[in-house]
Design goal:
- By secondary structure, the chain is an alpha+beta fold.
- Helix content is about 40%, strand content about 25%.
- The protein is built from 13 helices and 17 strands.
- The strands form 4 sheets. The chain has a 5-stranded antiparallel β-sheet with strand order 2-1-5-4-3, with helices on both faces. A 5-stranded antiparallel β-sheet has the order 7-6-10-9-8, sandwiched between helices. A 5-stranded mixed β-sheet has the order 12-14-15-17-16.
- A hairpin with a 5-residue loop joins strand 9 and strand 10.
- The longest helix is centred in the middle third of the chain and has 43 residues.
- The relative contact order is 0.05.
């Protein structure tokens, strides 16, 4: 710990303080004379004002012994003036700072300039303080006659400095031993600091990177996203940006990193960025492999749905061929009903094949397609039937979609076949034949309704106990989806099925 010297001719801080104090005392007490500088520190008659100074004022003999010391030292260390007068300065200096004290005394031996040193002073009863000592010698005929000094307690400052140094060292160790790349840049990407592990991870010597633009090493396709994060950070200084990008290593290979950073202002008002980046190349490769595997599975599922649909269509075609051998109308009707049911299921697999979501069916689209297909099947007998589909945009899984589709198929077909009078005998001025299909969410329940404005069901019919296969299917499928079915007969027929949303 060295000392510093004032420039020749310049008034030192202590000389300036002495002059200021001299002026103040002269102004406040005209009758009191200020002691001559040559009598400053006279051990036999020290001036009383020295006892009032907040700093420790002392004088030393040419051989470095205390000849005077004001009482302030006792406040700091417990040493009273009477304890130290006649004893060497070195007696109260910590052993690790003796060399600094000796160097200070050596510099004072042949110069009247002010010299400074930091010394660790032992307390009278255990412990120590850190001090800053400023001293100068008085020479006569080239020899030291006395040393005048001021000692200030800087313990708090030293402790703060030591704590700061320890924290800086800790942060340095954390940064230098981290697996992350740490860097400080300007807002336009110029490197001001890079951690030493850039050499191990990317092959770049830190000194090589300083002053270069980080964007020169980042893939062109990733620039826009990084710039967008910087702009957002400038708008909100507390924002912690995060972005994935490709970085070129010293071998020319592109490596994936995920970086997070924040902007801060320096003491001189400049904006800087601190960025912490971690390599995610292996994670990216794993993600790409997973995405590839998912795409393959999606393709396989689509193919499965496509083949199931085709197989169902084959079955439907076989039934159609077989129906040509039907011996009566009842047998033909059974073949046609079976074909409709198979087509209803095939339509679900066709929608899944074409949908982006392979596990869910959009019921609004499905119901519209299903009712349209059924109208085509029964076009000879229901040319004057209007259909009103009131379905919300709700997606359900295949386990729900197939039962719902079959239920709609049975109820809608029944309405087409039985609800309305023979068109040949229908009065032209009657209300139009209408079938309404409703599918909506009510609280946490799904509601499916199929209603018509036809003639209604016979009063004596118990739909829960009937020989009709269609109504038996409706009841069975309702139980399958844990639903509840209700029948309303008023100006037509309405079946309402309520079941929990899966």
């Amino acid at each position: 710990m060295g000392d510093t010297k004032n420039k020749p001719g310049a008034k030192s801080p202590d000389e300036a303080a002495y002059s200021e104090l001299e002026n103040k005392i002269s102004k406040t007490d005209k009758t009191r004379s200020f002691p001559d500088r040559n009598s400053f520190g006279n051990e036999s008659k020290p001036d009383n004002f020295l006892e009032l100074l907040p700093a420790v004022v002392f004088t030393l003999s040419p051989d470095g012994r205390f000849t005077f010391i004001n009482p302030v030292l006792k406040t700091y260390t417990g040493w009273a003036p009477s304890d130290l007068v006649g004893r060497p300065l070195l007696d109260i200096v910590d052993e690790h700072y003796v060399a600094f004290a000796v160097n200070l005394l050596s510099n004072l031996a042949d110069s009247e300039e002010i010299h400074n040193a930091e010394l660790k002073i032992r307390k009278k009863v255990g412990g120590h303080i850190y001090s800053e000592v400023s001293a100068r010698s008085e020479l006569e005929d080239g020899k030291v006659v006395r040393v005048l000094g001021v000692l200030r307690d800087i313990t708090d400052r030293k402790l703060d400095e030591d704590m700061l140094k320890k924290k800086e060292e800790l942060y340095r160790l954390l940064v230098e031993n981290s697996n992350d790349l740490i860097m400080e840049t300007t807002v336009d990407g110029i490197y001001l600091y890079v951690s030493s592990n850039h050499k191990d991870i990317l092959g770049y010597d830190p000194a090589y990177l300083i002053g270069k633009n980080s964007f020169d090493f980042i893939h062109q396709d990733d620039h826009d996203e990084i710039v967008a994060e910087i702009i957002r950070s400038m708008q909100d200084i507390s924002y912690l940006g995060r972005v994935s990008f490709r970085y070129r290593d010293s071998s020319g290979n592109w490596r994936w990193f995920e970086g997070s950073g924040a902007l801060f202002e320096t003491s001189d008002g400049l904006t800087r960025a601190i960025v912490d980046s971690r390599e995610i190349t292996e994670r990216k490769k794993a993600e790409e492999q997973i995405q590839k595997s998912l795409r393959e599975k999606e393709s396989l599922l689509r193919e499965i749905h496509h083949r199931v649909k085709n197989n169902l269509q084959v079955i439907s075609s076989l039934l159609n061929l077989q129906s040509e051998y039907a011996k009566n109308e009842d047998s033909l009707r059974l073949f046609n009903e079976s074909q409709n049911r198979i087509s209803t299921i095939a339509l679900i697999h066709e929608q899944l094949y074409r949908s982006e979501e392979l596990a869910e069916i959009n019921m609004e689209n499905y119901i519209r397609d299903l009712t349209s297909n059924l109208l085509t099947v029964f076009e000879d007998s229901c040319s004057k039937v209007e259909v009103n589909v009131m379905a919300e945009d709700i997606a359900v899984n295949i386990d729900t979609a197939i039962p719902c589709g079959l239920i709609i198929n049975e109820l809608f077909s029944n309405s087409l076949k039985h609800a309305f009078v023979d068109p040949e005998h229908e009065d032209e001025h009657t209300v139009a034949n209408l079938i309404t299909v409703i599918f909506q969410m009510q609280e946490d329940q799904l509601v499916l309704m199929v209603e018509d404005n036809g003639v209604g069901l016979p009063e004596e019919l118990n739909f829960r106990d009937t020989e009709s296969l269609g109504l038996q299917l409706v009841c069975t499928l309702t139980d399958q989806i844990k639903g509840n079915i209700e029948l309303y007969v008023c100006n037509g027929t309405c079946f309402k099925i309520t079941f929990p949303a899966m």
